[in-house]
């Protein structure tokens, strides 16, 4: 899982203000910048809020089915910044050697399929509810196997209906729009879909693992943004929906605007999966009042960290590693709340889908059954 995450989230920490630099772009007005950063802010918090609640449903379905979802271990979390660094530098070298146009063409096709599937996954329940009862729905079951008889192995087992096909068709239209025009709205629709799915499906099962992951990426972010120009170069060259963008000149040019501010999806997904874990921890607490204290603490912390990033970037007029501000906030505030409420031990002992440990009484019962047999 770490490899796939690294591939999709390498440009994970860049809020970048595009200024006039010989490209003929008009400098952003204060009003245009305010609109752009407000829009990015809202687009950033939306996937975290929605994805966190979807993650609760996803984990419940996994638990009910008896499946244990793939989660990131502490070792994976410690290795992730190293893998992400190697991937980031590898992409940077590829852009130095090969034509940017050909690379982005391949990426566009790749993300076309990923984006259509990601959007369909989110939109399918909504479309199904909106469909009239008179819609001639039919269910289908697609099974793909290899081998014969005893050697038969199931590779795919997928159930869907005509409503799902309608949803997929609508998402494919948006995908073609992105593929042909590369319009920033289509880019953002794909980016939001990736972010919501990432927060929902990518799983941290322990708070300690989340702290290791965020701590490692805290250092990773600072090094690659302040120490080199690699992060910013890749962010500008990598023409794929792994970042949310919004034009700062939209008031002057409308939908044809092209002077963009941007926020990497990693600045949303990485803190988001930690905040989603806090929500699941909230729901695990056996208290009479089912509050979501730690989720809202983490969510407010993310908002404060993101606002700080935008303000610092605007003041210094330089790209900022967003995790420099997000990580201390997202870890520090929930832990501080836990200290006040006396839940620190419970927080760091909590584990999603924890395997039930056998007690001494269970072991004695098993031994007595063996003796009887």
UniProtKB/TrEMBL annotation:
Single GO molecular function: aspartic endopeptidase activity, intramembrane cleaving
Entry keyword DNA-binding: no
Signal peptide: none
Example of a GO biological process term: membrane protein proteolysis
Transmembrane spans: 34-56, 77-97, 103-123, 186-204, 211-235, 255-281, 293-316, 322-340
Protein's organism: Patella caerulea (Rayed Mediterranean limpet)
Protein's UniProt name: Minor histocompatibility antigen H13
Location(s), subcellular: Endoplasmic reticulum membrane
Homology family: Belongs to the peptidase A22B family.
First-listed, main subcellular location of the protein, grouped into a coarse class: endoplasmic reticulum
Keywords: Endoplasmic reticulum, Hydrolase, Membrane, Transmembrane, Transmembrane helix
Coiled coil: none
């Amino acid at each position: 899982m770490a490899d796939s995450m690294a591939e999709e989230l390498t440009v994970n920490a860049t809020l970048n203000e595009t200024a006039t630099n010989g490209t003929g772009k008009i400098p952003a007005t204060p009003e245009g910048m305010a609109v752009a950063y407000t829009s990015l802010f809202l687009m950033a918090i939306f996937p975290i809020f929605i994805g966190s609640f979807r993650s609760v449903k996803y984990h419940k379905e996994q638990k009910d089915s008896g499946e244990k979802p793939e989660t990131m271990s502490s070792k994976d979390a410690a290795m992730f910044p190293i893998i992400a660094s190697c991937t980031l530098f590898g992409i940077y070298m590829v852009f130095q050697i090969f034509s940017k146009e050909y690379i982005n063409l391949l990426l566009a096709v790749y993300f076309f399929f990923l984006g259509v599937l990601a959007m369909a996954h989110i939109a399918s329940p909504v479309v199904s509810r909106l469909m009239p009862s008179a819609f001639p729905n039919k269910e289908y079951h697609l099974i793909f196997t290899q081998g014969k008889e005893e050697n038969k192995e199931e590779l795919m087992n997928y159930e869907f209906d005509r409503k799902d096909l309608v949803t997929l068709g609508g998402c494919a239209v948006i995908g073609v729009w992105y593929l042909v025009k590369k319009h920033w709205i289509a880019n953002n629709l794909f980016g939001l879909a990736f972010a919501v799915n990432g927060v929902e499906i990518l799983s941290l099962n322990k708070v300690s693992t989340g702290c290791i992951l965020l701590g490692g990426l805290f250092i990773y972010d600072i090094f690659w943004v302040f120490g080199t120009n690699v992060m910013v170069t890749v962010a500008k060259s990598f023409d794929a929906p792994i970042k949310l963008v919004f034009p700062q000149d939209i008031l002057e040019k409308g939908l044809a605007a092209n002077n963009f501010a941007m926020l990497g999806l990693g600045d949303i997904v990485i803190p988001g999966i930690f905040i989603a874990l806090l929500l699941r921890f909230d729901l695990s607490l056996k208290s009479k009042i089912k509050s979501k204290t730690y989720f809202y603490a983490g969510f407010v912390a993310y908002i404060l960290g993101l606002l700080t990033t935008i303000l610092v970037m605007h003041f210094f007029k330089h790209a900022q590693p967003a995790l420099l501000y997000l990580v201390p906030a997202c870890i520090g505030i929930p832990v501080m709340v836990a200290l006040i409420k006396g839940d620190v031990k419970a927080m760091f002992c909590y584990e999603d889908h924890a395997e039930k440990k056998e007690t001494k009484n269970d072991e004695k019962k098993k031994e007595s059954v063996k003796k009887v047999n």
